Amino acid sequence: MTKTMTKTAIEITDLNFSFENLSILENINMSIEQGDFAGLVGPNGGGKTCLLKLILGLYKPQSGKISIFGEPAKRQRKAIGYVPQYANFNSDFPISVQDTVLQGRLGVSSCFGRYCKEDKIIAQKVMQETEVIDLAQRSIQSLSGGQMQRVLVARALAAEPEIMLLDEPTANIDQRAEKDIFDIFKAINERMTILIISHDIGFVSDYINKVFCLNKTLVCHDSTPVTSDTIHTLYGGHVSEVHHHH
Known about the structure:
The protein is α/β, with parallel strands linked by helices. The protein has a single domain, classed as P-loop containing nucleotide triphosphate hydrolases (Rossmann fold, 3-Layer(aba) Sandwich), CATH 3.40.50.300. Helices cover 27% and strands 25% of the residues. It contains seven helices and ten strands. It has helices at 48-55, 97-102, 117-129, 145-157, 175-188, 201-204, 228-235, and strands at residues 8-19, 22-33, 37-41, 63-68, 71-72, 80-83, 163-167, 193-197, 210-215, 217-220. A six-stranded mixed sheet has the order 6-7-8-3-9-10, with helices on both faces. It has a four-stranded antiparallel sheet with strand order 2-1-4-5, covered by helices on one side. Helix 5 (175-188) links the parallel strand 7 (163-167) and strand 8. The two termini are 25 Å apart.
């Protein structure tokens, strides 16, 4: 029987990054395989969001290399979907849920200058998957925090990425809505690689298969157990221990 080969989705080697002479990330080495559901945890200011933007190709490292499926990050932008912690547009703008999700087709659609039938079919599919299909004609002004996050996830999925980067996607919603959204992420993970930033380390450990702890440098990575000593080193104080099973 032939063994299925696993591709490396994200490979980071000897990465260093500074901003205005301030060192943000030092000597980062990490590997995420295709199909992983990886968590990135660490304190505020530890460089987590910066690392995602480096992976997206929005920032350029001082030194080191980032590869996406073996190619430079800038060449693989279309392979990556990104959900920011906060919406990067004015939520007071009078736009419907469906039109917001369709924005995910910009730059990847085979149609020129307008949304075609295929784009609308894909938008319908991802709205169904993220359970916002009933809100399709609603204005985003009327949405709750949890509903808005689902719409942002649907918008990212509409681009049909192979990798999903999520920056604190449940930071501003209640615990019940958080579980519902993570269940959606778990289903999405069946067809794509996920890297998620979260402060709720105890909660995400029930979903992820790989964890990276980042505070300027990687304190631990891959399947290394996250102990109370590691958390103390990472956060500089008492935090509940992660129970991580790989």
